[in-house]
């Protein structure tokens, strides 16, 4: 049973991204990440829209537009891997796509990406320290992650939860556009 009292959302149907080369995208997502290409659509403007099965009846979709603007790292997409450089992106942009993986498969999946020649960033042990990342795993780590780029510079993440999130994990008031915490807001 979900926690949404307004709508019966059943997870992510699909996330739609834009690629520069659909052939290269199909190769990466099917041969490197092992996803099944499940649906292909020819668009009226000559473009394409393809869907890849991520599992659990959820899809990652890509558009290819014949006259799409070129990519803009540091604006519309992350310019570097987390733990390596700046990952800030513009308002309204999509920063990264995180795939949930089993914790006991984390090291195996890192080795598979490495063997396939995919450049990954450092393994990040996310915790609630001021830095947000621990030097090594400890009981306060809530998720382990590794990041990598697809051929179009889409920042991808393999993330493994290490514990269940609780009400104690919600402890910050949201800030406004100036970085000021909302008046009277409580987390």
From TrEMBL:
One of its GO terms (molecular function) is lyase activity. Residues 11-161 form the VOC domain. Transmembrane segments: none annotated. InterPro entries: Glyas_Bleomycin-R_OHBP_Dase, Glyas_Fos-R_dOase_dom, GlyoxalaseI/FosfomycinResist, VOC_core. This is Catechol 2,3-dioxygenase-like lactoylglutathione lyase family enzyme. Keywords: Dioxygenase, Lyase, Oxidoreductase. It comes from Actinomadura hallensis. Pfam families: Glyoxalase (PF00903). The keyword Acetylation does not apply.
């Amino acid at each position: 049973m979900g926690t949404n009292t307004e709508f019966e959302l059943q997870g992510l149907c699909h996330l739609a991204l834009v690629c520069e080369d659909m052939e290269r995208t199909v190769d990466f997502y099917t041969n490197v990440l092992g996803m099944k290409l499940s649906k292909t659509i020819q668009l009226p403007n000559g473009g394409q829209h393809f869907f890849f099965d991520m599992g659990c009846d959820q899809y990652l979709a890509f558009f290819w537009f014949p006259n799409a603007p070129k990519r803009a790292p540091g604006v519309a997409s992350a310019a570097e891997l987390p733990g390596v450089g700046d990952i800030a992106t513009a308002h309204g942009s999509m920063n990264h796509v995180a795939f949930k993986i089993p914790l006991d498969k984390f090291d195996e999946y890192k080795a598979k990406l490495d063997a396939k020649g995919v450049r990954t960033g450092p393994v990040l042990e996310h915790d609630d320290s001021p830095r947000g990342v621990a030097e090594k795993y400890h009981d306060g780590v809530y998720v382990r992650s590794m990041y990598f780029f697809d051929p179009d510079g889409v920042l991808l993440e393999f993330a493994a939860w290490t514990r269940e999130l609780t009400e104690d994990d919600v402890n910050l008031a949201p800030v406004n556009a100036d970085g000021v915490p909302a008046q009277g807001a409580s987390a």
